[in-house]
Amino acid sequence: MTTPAAAPRRGAWPGWKNLPREARDTLFLLGVIAWTVLPHVSHLPAWCTALTAAVLLWRTRLALTGGALPGRWVLVAVLMVAAVLTVWSFRTLLGKEPGVTMAVALMALKTLELRARRDAFVVFFLGFFLILTHFLYSQSLAVAVAMLVSVWGLLTALVLAHLPVGQPSLRQASGLAARTALLGAPLMALMFVLFPRVGPLWGVPHDSAGKTGLSNSMRMGSVAEVAQDDSIALRIRFDGAPPPPDALYFRGPVLTRFDGAEWQPLPPALQRPGNLRVAGPALRYEMTLEPLRLPVLPLLEATATAPQIEGWRVVGLTDLQWLVNRPVTERLRFEAEAHVAFKHGPTARNADMEEELMLPPSFNPRTLAWAAAVRRDPVYATASGRVLAQMLLQHIRTQGFSYTLAPGEYGRNAVDEFWLDRREGFCEHFAAAFVVVMRALDVPARVVTGYQGTDPLPVDGYHVVRQSSAHAWAEYWEPGTGWVRADPTAAIAPDRINRGSRLAPPQGLVAGALGTMNPALLADLRQGWEAMNNRWNQWVLNYSRGQQLQVMKNLGFDTPSWEDMALLLIGSLSTLALAGAAWAWWDRHRVDPWVRQRVALHRALQSLGIPAAAADSPRALAARVRGRFGPAGEALANQLDALERQRYGRGAIPKPDATLTRAVKSRVRQLAAALPRRGVQAADT
């Protein structure tokens, strides 16, 4: 007595292979959609993320239980709710943010209308469109890889939709999708390399556009906040040996005006003559600048001539700042020249320096009194700015100051607290206090912000400057010389300037554990990833007209022109088109191996007197064999049933099994050989 198999529990997962094909294909498509939408979660309103998740889970449940899809009016009502919430969130239905939000909502709702293949095609094309929208936010290598997986998944779902019979495996469909995509890859690469460049790959904000490093103003603690960000601010490659670390100052906003709490730059209209004097040979360099959201180029001090950047107007100010005509919200790549040995500014004091001497009234009275006491000292009563600056730097070295990323909050008279009481701060605390004291000593001074230093070792030939290299230093004016750089941070933390040893915030759990076990491995992994990102940036995102022309030269064109590029592109596309047409002609005249098998089997069965039409399946033919020959034909019928499972069953294979085909033909011959003897026996009877 056999025990009957236990019925599966209600709601139990039957196993992926035991799902009906429609349910399996639907679940696969829902997974691809969820993967495609996932990177958008950080950009979407919370209600859109919740709505999308709820709809996808609802559709998953319907696929598993075989439940009926909701009616049209339910979908219309949900769509209207999504539209109202979009208007409530963005005050409009137009623009990038509301457009992406509605596209995600429509994609999710369309899955509740998967009644026919036509509906599936709409979902596929919505998915491809949604993939493109990711590049409106980020063009990083990670996003590109994630979207490549999405494209592969959607192509696999598209292949499954074109295989209406049997139950082809996901492996078979994904392999066909991959081969199809690879066939199109040469055309894609050709179009990318030779199609005329009209600007960056995507002329919209991306990756880092949501963050900012430098700012056009500075408060106590603002630079320390930026310095805790370890992301890349810029990459620089030198034409020759790099300068020493203490010469790597990348000049950003120059902050002159001080209201007691915040430092701000002078308007460009108030800039005075700069009078830059350089010495020594020029240092050529190439810079790749990440988005800043500021109209500023943090160039190496002192860059004397404006870099040429296609589509941008670069203006140099007399305080050595370099401005552009709009905020930098995309990655820029350019070449420039700098002189690390330079002097700038007027050599004689004039009335225009009043801004660099002004201090707000009623702020930091104790520091002003301290400076007045210094001036009353006969040693410093008539001292020059250089002597006073050296005195202040020595004061910082010897009076118990400490350099820290977390000095805590400072009050209204922040310079008083820092200079005379707590003596704990980051670079902006030292720079701001130095400038305030110098002004109180009647020496013109100002704050300069930017980046200082690079990572110790280059990555893929480029020296990396991170947001954690954000820095603030000071400039004071010296008669006969002009503006002189003074970096108080170097007095208290010389390794920060001379070796680029930045303070680092605590690492996360995973990075901290990996760094504890194998610090070299963590550094190697980060450098490898950044090298790949750099190559992606240089050769894909920043692929320019100049690089196109260089490719033409490498192909043998001495003086390539746009006409040469157009002819090469047209010729290449024509060659590929002819090759594709030839392949299509050959493929059209190929005989499907399943058709060859069907023709051979039908011919063999007709020799037994079994009628066989083109539309007859192996199972139908097996039934005719059983009806004609009874038990004698059972072996042949079983072989035909095996062919049916091989072609249309769950374990369907892409090509006929030659062994099984030969076995069927052998059974036909055996049965045909037995027919005359059976006929004679019947006649004798």
Question: What report would you give on this structure?
Answer:
This protein has three domains: 16-194; 210-505, no CATH class; 593-684, no CATH class. The protein is 49% helix and 11% strand. The chain has helices at residues 21-37, 46-65, 72-90, 96-110, 117-134, 141-161, 170-194, 222-227, 365-376, 385-398, 414-422, 427-440, 488-492, 494-498, 509-517, 519-541, 545-554, 562-589, 593-606, 618-629, 634-648, 658-684, and strands spanning 232-238, 249-255, 257-258, 263-264, 277-279, 283-289, 299-300, 314-316, 322-324, 332-338, 341-343, 402-403, 424-425, 445-452, 463-466, 470-478, 482-486. The strands form six sheets. It has a five-stranded antiparallel β-sheet. A four-stranded antiparallel β-sheet has the order 10-6-1-15, with no helix packed on it. Helix 2 (46-65) packs parallel to helix 4 (96-110), helix 15 (509-517) packs across helix 16 (519-541) and helix 19 (593-606) runs parallel beside helix 22 (658-684). The longest helix has 28 residues, at 562-589. 30% of the residues are buried.
